[in-house]
Write a structure and sequence with these properties.
This protein has 14 helices and 12 strands. The chain binds pyridoxal-5'-phosphate.
Length: 396
């Protein structure tokens, strides 16, 4: 039952960080619903456990599991993905500068511009798919280069190795939001990143039943610093939520294989359709960074975005007509979801900023689940018919 670094990903996903209970053999890590821990003598906590804001055994198991999957030495788990991003930003002081991607997760953009900009932190949002743009945005006070690859919702890729070179040349840390890819498909630390951030709410949890986040890395000083802030500020992940994510990671590999094969089939299907102007999926040869996808990722993931002819009305008609794809924000669960970024997840980004970043009004985003692919394609066809009817009515 013991695993080591030599075990393969699928094996570590199931076992890393977890041992059967030595007293009764319980194979699953218990949900340690406890706030405090009895000490053997004053200031002698057992295995360092004093108080659950600081550490909790269920959270420890998850942190070790995630670290193993990312090829990291440590992990810290937070109450949400944004709480993890917040923890990074807490380390900055007025005058510090962050270079970030220009089609980031909407909530990350909101946290940076509406919260931390007020505290005197400067942000530059650039097209990180171009390492030269990244380089040009670097300044003497740049502390983080913060990238998402694949990005949300346009599925554009940023070269992690090239970004690490630019960040390190400027004395900054490279942070990669690896939520869309998961460590099964992409391991940024092996490519030179300093920190990996996850919304565990998505693929790692995998069942749309928990909100959680994580940071993982290899630098012990950074871990100490972040653990200090987590203990000082809070925002840690609770034990039941830790258990749910731990259960999710056990099946990550098999789920991702199916997410990827279903997504590729749907992307290829959409690409053939006359109402679809563009499909964004790194697994398509038409994707401008298909070569980078093959170098940097083991497979292209489960997210597919596309532009419908007919703008917002067509996108809304599509998203309202599906029966299997549920109309909802979020992604990465076993069930398929559809959403229209301009009105939903990316509504907090001003239209002119959105358009400049290439997010058109007819944009539709699919989180392709692990249902049977033929049922999913049938559902897409039904929704495309609904979009066509809207277009025909508009023309008539
Ligand atoms: C959802 C998401 C986040 C934020 O995570 P929460 O768990 O919702 O706080 C950050 N980055 C990406 C790419 C996401 O999809």
């Amino acid at each position: 039952m013991s695993t080591n670094e030599n075990s393969r990903f699928e094996t570590r996903a199931i076992h890393a960080g977890q041992q059967p209970d030595p007293r009764n053999g319980a194979i699953m890590t218990p949900v340690y619903l406890t706030s405090t821990y009895v000490q053997d003598a004053p200031a002698q906590p057992r295995e360092g456990y004093e108080y659950s804001r600081t550490t909790n055994p269920t959270r420890t198991a998850l942190q070790e599991n995630l670290a193993s999957l990312e090829g990291a030495t440590w992990g810290l788990c937070y109450a949400s993905g944004l709480a993890a991003t917040n923890a990074l930003a807490d380390r900055l002081v007025p005058g510090d500068h962050v270079v970030a991607g220009n089609d980031l997760y909407g909530g990350t953009y909101r946290l940076f511009t509406k919260v931390f900009q007020r505290y005197g932190i400067d942000f530059s949002f650039v097209d990180t798919t171009d390492p030269k743009a990244l380089e040009a945005a670097m300044g003497p006070n740049t502390r983080y280069v913060y990238i998402e690859t694949p990005s949300n919702p346009l599925l554009s890729l940023t070269d992690i190795e090239a970004s690490a070179r630019v960040a390190h040349a400027g004395g900054a840390l490279l942070v990669v939001d690896n939520t869309f890819a998961t460590p099964y498909l992409q391991r940024p630390l092996e490519l030179g990143a300093d920190l990996v951030l996850h919304s565990l709410t998505k693929y790692l949890g995998g069942h749309s039943d928990v909100v959680a986040g994580a940071l993982v890395g290899n630098d012990d000083g950074l871990r100490e610093d972040l653990a200090f802030y987590q203990n000082a500020v809070g925002g840690q992940l609770g034990p039941l939520d830790s258990f749910l994510v731990l259960r999710g990671t056990k099946t990550l590999a098999v789920r991702m294989d199916r997410h990827c094969s279903n997504a590729l089939a749907i992307a290829q299907h959409l690409e053939q359709h006359e109402l679809v102007e563009r499909v964004f999926y790194p697994g398509l040869e038409s994707h401008p960074q298909h070569g980078l996808a093959r170098r940097q990722m083991h497979a292209p993931g489960g997210m597919v975005s596309f532009e419908l002819a007919g703008g917002v009305p067509a996108g809304n008609a599509f998203a309202s007509a599906t029966r299997i794809f549920a109309l909802a924000e979020s992604l990465g669960g076993v069930e398929s979801l559809v959403e229209v970024p301009p009105s939903m997840t990316h509504a907090s980004i001003p239209p002119e900023v959105r358009h400049a970043a290439g997010l058109s009004d007819g944009l539709v985003r699919l989180s392709v689940g692990i249902e049977h692919v033929d049922d999913l394609i049938g559902d897409v066809n039904r929704a495309l018919d609904a979009a066509r009817r809207v277009l025909q009515t508009a023309k008539a």
